[in-house]
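Morning!

As promised:
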Amino acid sequence: MRQAEEDEYREFVVARLDRLRRTAYLLCRDWHTADDLVSITLARLYRTWTRARQAENLDAYVRAMLTNAFLDEGRRPWRREEATTEPPDRADASPYPAIVDRAELADLLTALPRRQRAIVVLRFYCDMPVAEVAQLLGVSEGTVKSQAARGLEILRAAAPHVVQGEKA
Amino acid sequence: MSLRDILDSSIVEEPPPFPDIDELIARERRRPRRRRWAAAVTGTAGVVVAVLGVTVVTGHLGSARTPSGVGAEPDSSVTASVPPDETPEERYARLSELLRTRIAAVLPEVAIRSYHPDYSELFYEYPQLDGGAGAFPGYDALMAMLGVTAPQGSMDLSVFIVRPLAPPRPRPTGGVMGRLFGGCAGEWSTATPPVSGQDTCEDREGPGGTAVSIAERHFENESFLMVTVAFPEGGVVTVMTDPAATLLSPDDLVEIVADPGFVAG
């Protein structure tokens, strides 16, 4: 990679690092794993930068790399996690309602299966269109819509007063 | 408040500091070198010759230092566990199991795979060095090329065992064995001059009366970390790996191979 390209890569990464990390965290709900995912993504991006920088929507391209890294990691034996129907017990319930809502929301997101969690994050956090999410995950648009709708129901349960107007 | 803000606000933990981007870039710059090394490890016997050629060339020339206790009786507790009529196949299996156990003691969740396509065990004989080529007269040489994977990462290792064929075990002072036992002292004066000024070598006393040398050599296209443990019983175990790999530190490698069981029998 030429120096100018490397400088361009560094500038791109620095500008988006915080957002990428937060997206990764929403996917995996653990900072250590999130930073692993971001590191994997940025390393792959570095290797393909000469080609990737010409992408029409580079941000979407990088989000796709991050999501694939997340889904790939889930297939490794030591990363394998089980989705649960019940959110985990929370011992340190906060006396402040707003904090309770956020914590409940975090627990509910954690309880979602990986792919559904990815759909929720890509649709509602990254604002990706249904068609792009479907293409990225290799599923039908109907699947994205139905899974996003279920995810939205869960979010409404945690924050009913602010999620009323959203569409799957 | 938008849905994005709600999701954002669900991140209730503070993020830890992220590794430096420049470090990540530097690691990726080194990646082609690591790939070349991995290709060498996974290659054919011809590539093995080349890799071991580096060991011989960069080995410890002269015999400026000899580990304490060379020529002493072998550890009876170790040799007692080795059957006197151990067949080569049994020896490969024993050493492979020993290596697996030692690595797992350092990396509990490790997965190990041999890169040799024709052998189920990790270790196999290396005929070109078993006296046939005159490189190690009076000794036999075994080799293992393996990939080590753990949750923290992965790395490739070449483990090379040279063992005297029969007692009494002579004190190795000349030839390649003399070099392998020589530590760092003779290396810089007589070995192939290093390409870069980054080469390092450190001698130290190891566990159980062993002598340890840890060398990092950089050549035009390749770099090697070589950890050599010379046993008082008269054998040597050398581990070669990519110096950029971090899964196992040089100290970890010493801990793994500093077991007299590797040269017993």
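The domain at 84-168 of chain A is CATH 1.10.10.10 (Arc Repressor Mutant, subunit A).

Hope this helps with the figure draft.
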